[in-house]
């Protein structure tokens, strides 16, 4: 296995995160030009007057900047200590896939039960990644 393969899942998640970021100004601009919100509704983030379909991309973007930070750190750590293997790579791709699915659920039909289940599974995968890292460095 080539060492750079370990960084591919993190790179894909970063590009996906930037793609979701593009949705934030698009949704806000559409709502602003349609007169559904005022510019001041975004002065301190998002006011209560901002419709959910405008808030959700921003919330999803924030989700992609929270817990995935531990994934990025884990990816770099596994790469730097050269303890990567097919299991780490599979777990990393599983995590990325689950986070993409979570976002797609959140950004489309947004059923909380489905979204929560995928989120919980992704967190379990991330926990396994970190347990394997701890076992590798201790």
TrEMBL record:
Record field: transmembrane: 6-26, 64-81, 87-105, 117-137
Annotated SUPFAM superfamilies: MAPEG domain-like
Origin: domain of life: Bacteria
Record protein name field: Membrane-associated protein in eicosanoid and glutathione metabolism (Mapeg)
Location of this chain's protein in the cell: Membrane
Main subcellular localisation: membrane
A single Gene Ontology CC term: membrane
UniProt keyword annotations, A-Z: Membrane, Transmembrane, Transmembrane helix
